[in-house]
Amino acid sequence: MAVNEVRALLERHGHIVQEVDGGNDHGEDLHVTFVQNDQRTADSVAVQVKGGVSTRTRRGHRVRVGDHGGNWRDGSLPVLCVVHDPERGGLFWANATRQLRRAEALRKTLKSVVVSRESVLDDASIGTFVQSMRNSLVWERQGLGRWADMADVEFAPNDIVKPFENECGEPMIFWQRRGEPFAVLLHHDLDWEPVRVQERMLRFDPIPVIGSVILDSAEAHWLMGCFQSTEWWRRPVEQSDLA
Fold first, then answer.
1. For residue 89, what are the CA distances in angstroms to 117, 120, 121?
2. What is the pLDDT of residues 94-140, one digit of tens each?
3. Distance in angstroms (rounded) separating the CA atoms of residues 126 and 185
4. Entry pTM
């Protein structure tokens, strides 16, 4: 019944739904490809569907990860958990891949995916849901979706996002939003907690730092390049630009 409810909602809005044989054994019940203007897009997700009663908590639902954690976190498709609980209003969803990546960033083991009661999936919300997932899949294809998930942030389509990896293989992200007077640094050593930075905070002597964050020489020069190449994107947004 739960799978049928999810399928009916998605197909009612024109999306392509394929049921996975043996999905309960492998942690995926459905593969969904989003459709726009009657045209199939390149954006697909996998979905694990659960009935609601056994997963209920006071604030929503929890879906046990079990032995699916590695596949849900690192698979080729993002995995969503959708719970069907008609007594509480219908369908509710959570991004399992995102929660598992965030747990990894915090060096924690996630035993259950949290599904909030506020994350309703219905005819009124499906448009916003699909657009959000499609936006995140654009960054996923660029190899940046993992870092957004680990930092628990969402990059907008017109954001400037520049990745860097130091000699120890530790990744960093420079993130500039349109019109913001500051950028955001996402850093492996900071557990991916977003840190606001400005060019005037960057120092090279006696050791490279930006604010209180210690850098190596390569990281500092990379950041300088990021600031200089995105100065135009920090300029105040004029009303004519918004129009």
1. 9, 8, 10
2. 999 999 999 999 999 999 999 999 999 999 999 999 999 999 999 99
3. 32
4. 0.89
- C-alpha distances out from residue 171 to 31, 38, 135, Å: 31, 39, 22
Print the domain residue range for 22. Answer: 2-139
Confidence of residue 240 (pLDDT cuts 50, 70, 90): very low
Residue 145 neighbours by CB under 8 Å, 6+ apart: 78, 136, 137, 139
The verdict on 220 and 128 lying in the same domain is no
Does 209 lie in the same domain as 91? no
| 128: exposed, middle or buried (Cβ count in 10 Å: 0-12, 13-18, 19+) | exposed
Whether residue 148 lies inside any domain: the answer is no
End-to-end CA distance of the chain: 46
Whole-number Å distance between alpha carbons of 149 and 160? 17
Does residue 147 form part of some domain? no
Q: What are 231's two structure tokens? A: 């100065």
Do 183 and 120 fall within a single domain?
no
| Residue 105 in tokens | 């960033």
CA distance 47 to 54: 18
| Cβ(17)–Cβ(30) below 8 Å | yes
